[in-house]
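Module 6 notes. Inverse folding takes a fixed backbone as the condition and produces residue identities as the prediction. Think of it as a translation problem where the source language is geometry and the target language is the twenty amino acids. Below is one complete input and output pair. Work through it position by position during the lab.
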């Protein structure tokens, strides 16, 4: 959470900082600020609210060629101008993403020397850097500060007495460094600087970057200059633009087809199991799988459990990353821990990975962002290839995770000789149907727009289903609540009657997801139980179930999806519900890409 940008070069830096912060807003948007050098004086401008509000306060034509900026997701202290970054103390100005864990203790030590104004941990980090900078050169000061502070941080620093240089350090929070021609950048994410370059360096723990008009220098822990491998962002600059769509979320839903095609092209271009095996790790030595993630990644894991158990006969459990750390770990060489994360930086998932590794468990990351912490620290990684996702509510990246899990189920099933080569290849060919059916759903967008009109004025919705449909309910319900703020509950259809049904009132919308024929009648009964208590029912189901079981008109509306290979059925079931959530939020006039209180990448525990 929190986005950082820093720039030094020939351009007017305020413009670069504001544009960068806008691309980073998905990381937090309760306040923002910039610090820049003007005639050898560091000026700071801060504002609460979105970056737009900061922009309104700024004259972007001010001549300054070096500055740092920050967009915040509050952790320590309310969103306010005082708590917003940059923080200036002594002769030091910093922007920070992460959490300084020992800040209370450090604050006590420093209180006699510094007058703290904010409630933040960041101001304490600035003070400790400033303190060491008084009697050391800047590199030594930063080295000492890194030793002293604990927690996670990506920090950009400017010193009053060296106003033409930006320094950067990091531990556990993401930060990239770039240098092109006479310009240098620091940023939380490549999206912030993609307009200028797609080449970047990853700063490792203990390293220090120094950026000035003379170029970029990176130092190791011993303060010796080092050369680092350059990384090239493989995505496209269009990833960071709306391309005519009103919101990133809608654009990203429409991008789902490209994501599926990318995955096929990269892992099994001829829909052939032999290619897939070459490109995926071998899972046959494992008897058990534990999938760990947060939010939608956890929901993808729930779908994965169903697929791995039913197709590959692999005993699978799913854990929320934030809970895994409190569990008793049973080290087992025959168990694989799969960490799912779009950003690859989610603090809880990263910590779960580290715990698993400490216990000598094998780990596999299913990650979208290249070279992110989880991708780098996992024993193996499979990339989701969903491209850059900007809307806070994930859509295409969640579906990419589910498709990757379906492919793991196919590979494992084949390796375990549950299916033969022909079967495996025919499963893979079914991805074509998935792609075609997703196209049809997206062409039929108007339908979901109309459906949204029927429910957008409610304050509560339910999503109920059984088995794999319950996992889909979890994701559909999360989409609905996080962007429309309509309270939404996902419930196993059979469990509703044990208490929660008391919330059903006249006209409460209840969505039933029914994609499995064997359990269709049971979910239908549960839906009717809510109808008897006044609910309005909406159903998402396959053509076949619709024809066979849904002749009596007890529901308000129905979304009918094609029946495809159950391995991919979840994917085409979710797309319409993402569109529905989008249109409901739009009718309610909410800020769809940046819902309140949220951030896309949660790098605090
Ligand atoms: C945040 C986002 C969710 C996301 C979750 C996990 O809460 O708002 O959309 O599912 O983090 O993020 P990750 O990057 O680990 O997939």
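Target side of the pair, the amino acids:
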């Amino acid at each position: 959470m929190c986005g950082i940008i820093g720039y030094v070069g020939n351009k007017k830096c305020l413009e670069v900082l504001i544009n960068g912060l806008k691309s980073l807003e998905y990381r937090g948007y309760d306040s923002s600020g910039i610090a820049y050098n003007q005639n050898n004086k560091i000026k700071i401008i801060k504002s609460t609210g979105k970056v737009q509000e900061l922009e309104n306060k700024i004259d972007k034509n001010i001549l300054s060629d070096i500055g740092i900026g920050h967009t915040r997701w509050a952790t320590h202290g309310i969103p306010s101008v005082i708590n917003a970054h940059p923080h200036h103390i002594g002769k030091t100005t910093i922007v920070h993403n992460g959490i300084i864990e020992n800040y209370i203790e450090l604050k006590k030590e420093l209180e006699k020397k510094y007058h703290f104004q904010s409630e933040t941990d960041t101001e304490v980090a600035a003070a400790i850097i400033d303190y060491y900078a008084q009697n050391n050169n800047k590199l030594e000061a930063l080295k000492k500060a890194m030793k002293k502070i604990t927690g996670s941080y990506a920090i950009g620093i400017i010193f009053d007495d060296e106003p033409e240089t930006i320094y950067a350090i990091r531990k556990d929070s993401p930060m990239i460094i770039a240098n092109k021609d006479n310009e240098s950048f620091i940023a939380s994410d490549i999206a912030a600087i993609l307009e200028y370059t797609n080449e970047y360096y990853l700063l490792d723990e203990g390293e220090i970057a120094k950026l000035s008009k003379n170029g970029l220098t990176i130092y190791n822990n011993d303060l010796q200059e080092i050369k680092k491998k350059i990384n090239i962002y493989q995505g496209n600059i269009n990833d960071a633009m709306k391309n005519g769509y009103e919101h990133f979320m809608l654009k990203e839903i429409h991008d789902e087809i490209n994501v599926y095609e990318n995955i096929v092209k990269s892992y099994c271009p001829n829909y052939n199991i032999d290619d897939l095996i070459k490109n995926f790790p071998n899972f046959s030595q494992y008897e058990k799988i534990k999938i760990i993630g947060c939010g939608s990644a956890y929901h993808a894991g729930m779908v994965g459990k169903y697929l791995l158990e039913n197709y590959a006969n692999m005993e699978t459990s799913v854990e929320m990353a934030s809970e895994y750390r409190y569990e008793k770990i049973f080290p087992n060489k025959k168990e694989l821990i799969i960490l799912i994360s779009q950003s690859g930086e989610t603090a809880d998932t990263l910590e779960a990975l580290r715990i698993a590794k400490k216990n000598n468990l094998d780990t596999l990351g299913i990650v979208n962002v290249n070279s992110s912490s989880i991708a780098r620290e996992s024993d193996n990684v499979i990339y989701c290839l969903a491209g850059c996702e900007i809307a806070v509510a994930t859509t295409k990246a969640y579906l990419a995770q589910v498709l990757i899990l379906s492919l793991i189920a196919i590979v494992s099933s084949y390796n375990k000789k549950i299916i033969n080569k022909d079967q495996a290849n025919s499963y893979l060919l079914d991805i074509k149907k998935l792609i075609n059916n997703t196209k049809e759903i997206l062409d039929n967008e108007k339908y979901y727009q109309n459906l949204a009109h029927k429910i957008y004025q409610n304050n509560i919705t339910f999503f109920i289903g059984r088995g794999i449909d319950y996992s889909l309910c979890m994701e559909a319900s999360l989409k609905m609540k996080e962007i429309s703020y309509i309270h939404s509950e996902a419930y196993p259809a059979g469990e509703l009657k044990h208490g929660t049904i008391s919330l059903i009132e006249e006209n409460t919308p209840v969505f039933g997801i029914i994609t499995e024929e064997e359990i269709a009648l049971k979910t239908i009964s549960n839906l009717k139980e809510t109808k008897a208590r006044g609910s309005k029912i909406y159903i998402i189901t396959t053509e076949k179930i619709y024809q066979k079981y849904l002749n009596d008109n007890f529901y308000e509306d129905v979304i009918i999806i094609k029946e495809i290979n159950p391995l991919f059925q979840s994917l085409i079931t979710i797309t319409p519900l993402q569109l529905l959530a989008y249109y409901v939020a739009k009718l309610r006039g909410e800020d769809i890409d940046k819902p309140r209180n949220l951030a896309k990448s949660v790098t605090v525990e």
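Reference fact for the lab report: Residues 421-443 form the longest helix (23 residues).
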